[in-house]
Amino acid sequence: MKKIYSLLIIVFSFASCSQAQQTEFKEEALSNTMKTVENTDITFQEILKKYEGKTIVIDVWASWCSDCIKGMPKVKALQEKYPDVTYLFISMDKNYEAWTKGIEKYDVQGEHYLTSDGMKGVFGKSIKLDWIPRYMVVDKTGKIALFKVIEADDTKLIETLESLK
């Protein structure tokens, strides 16, 4: 019986740890080089520095992602409800041309950056990316306030933005 009880405690401990929300970006994410819409290089750390002191909603998406495109009206509604928030779109597109055409085609309003190595690359792995769209919220101090939701109208996302007003 003691063995079963001990095993349950160990399993519960691991499960609790795996559900813990990441509150800081890993060094590999921060040093990851991305592209601007002007086709210049910038690190993710430099991107975050640009928006320091602001609440940021990060939308990880791609122009080829049907779920991302279907979710855009929800993102636009979020932008209307929270106009003082910075909306940072990080694309997982494979190339610059497809990405910039997608921004224009879907009228994506916000700040735009392109990852250098796709979903399974350094940035994607560092944020445990397993699905797009993926939404994150960064507070005014640069801490991750919400690590993962996959719907722009998710209750957790709304509650997080409300708490950061």
Describe this entry's structure for a reader.
The protein is α/β, with parallel strands linked by helices and 165 residues long. It has a single domain (22-163), classed as Glutaredoxin, CATH 3.40.30. 41% of the residues lie in helices and 21% in strands. The chain has helices spanning 2-18, 27-30, 44-50, 66-81, 96-105, 122-126, 155-163; strands spanning 33-36, 41-43, 56-61, 86-91, 111-115, 134-138, 144-149. It has a seven-stranded mixed sheet. The longest helix has 17 residues, at 2-18. It is globular and about 35 Å long. It holds the Pfam family Thioredoxin_8.
Tally of helical segments: 7
Strand content: 15-25%
- Proportion of residues in helical segments: 40-55%
Count structural domains: 1
Average of pLDDT: 89
Descriptive labels:
seven-stranded mixed beta sheet, 21% strand, Glutaredoxin, alpha/beta, 165 residues, globular, 41% helix
Brief overview, please?
It holds the Pfam family Thioredoxin_8. The protein has 7 helices and 7 strands.
Topology overview:
Elements: H1 2-18, H2 27-30, E1 33-36, E2 41-43, H3 44-50, E3 56-61, H4 66-81, E4 86-91, H5 96-105, E5 111-115, H6 122-126, E6 134-138, E7 144-149, H7 155-163
Parallel strand pairs: 3-4, 4-5
Antiparallel strand pairs: 1-2, 1-5, 3-6, 6-7
